[in-house]
Amino acid sequence: MTQPRIALVTTAHLPEGAVDHDLPLLRDAVAAAGAEAAVVNWHDPDVDWSGFDLALIRSTWDYTLRTGEFLAWADRCGAATALLNPPAVVRWNSDKRYLGELASLGVPAVATRYLPPGGGVEGLPGDHEFVVKPTAGAGARYAARYRPEQHEEARAHVERMHGEGITAMVQPYMPRIDTTGERALVFVGGRFLHAISKNAVLSPDTRYDARKVAHPGVRPWTPTGAELAAAERALSAVPGRPELLYARVDLVDAEDGTPRVMELELIEPQLFLTHHPDSLPLIADAVVRAAG
């Protein structure tokens, strides 16, 4: 019986300092599960995607710098072979305006306001810390935390993004993240697999264009019932209720201690496999089954 061929999709243009620690572990685990695994760059024009039974998006971490090109690739790849997660999910999840959609459906998400280019920079919070970041971003790129008196700096930040055609989003800074951190819950095949906790990413007075550590202080985490419920509610609200091979739901605590969805990662989330090696065979089996 012929082994399925699986493309683990990455990029040759990883952001400075970024390393996909999951990728070699997943490649070896998929091979051990009975498939042929190849690491492939999404932007390589010489790749014949129809030669694979499955293309699995992994560390395509430059996609936010060339979103239109990446979405066009996802459509082409999805027409040539099975792409996971599917192109429609990739398109929806590539713009963080999905947080507004989730909130409108009753998902406990961090309150978010959007400032598109040409719309001005009015109404920044005056009584609490807030965060400004792009609706298409990864690794805290173009993200910064501001105090209420820092409107001038925040406006310059937004205007810089507007000058590049980027929609900005404004969220209250969730102060409990400084003590309780942020949690990331990983799901495979619709079922919870494992979780991690990490420290706050945004430090006061760090410029938006400074490089940040995307996942500081990672450690394994056992989620509470409330965290699992919030994550599952977010996943159930994805348009069309698609079959998701993998998903990561990032949560923070509100002032009252209840979890809020910070991000729903359905394109290329790090899965923190070095912290949960026991999950590797489970993920690999799910990948190989999806290729069948």
SSE layout and pairing:
Layout: E1 5-10, H1 22-32, E2 36-41, E3 54-57, H2 67-80, E4 82-84, H3 87-93, H4 98-104, E5 113-115, E6 130-134, E7 144-146, H5 151-163, E8 168-172, H6 177-180, E9 182-188, E10 191-198, E11 219-220, H7 225-236, E12 246-253, E13 259-265, H8 280-291
Helix pairs in contact: 1-8, 2-3
What does this 3D model show about the protein?
By secondary structure, the protein is of the alpha+beta class. Helix 1 packs across helix 8 and helix 2 (67-80) packs antiparallel against helix 3 (87-93). The radius of gyration is 19 Å and the shape is globular. Strands 11-10-9-12-13 form a 5-stranded antiparallel sheet. Strands 2-1-3-4 form a 4-stranded parallel sheet, sandwiched between helices. A 4-stranded antiparallel sheet has the order 5-8-6-7, with helices on one face. The mean pLDDT is 94. Helix content is 27%, strand content 23%.
List the strand order in the largest sheet: 11-10-9-12-13
| Global shape | globular
* Annotation, overall tally of beta strands: 13
Low-confidence stretches: none
* Biggest sheet character: 5 strands, antiparallel
Radius of gyration: 19 Å
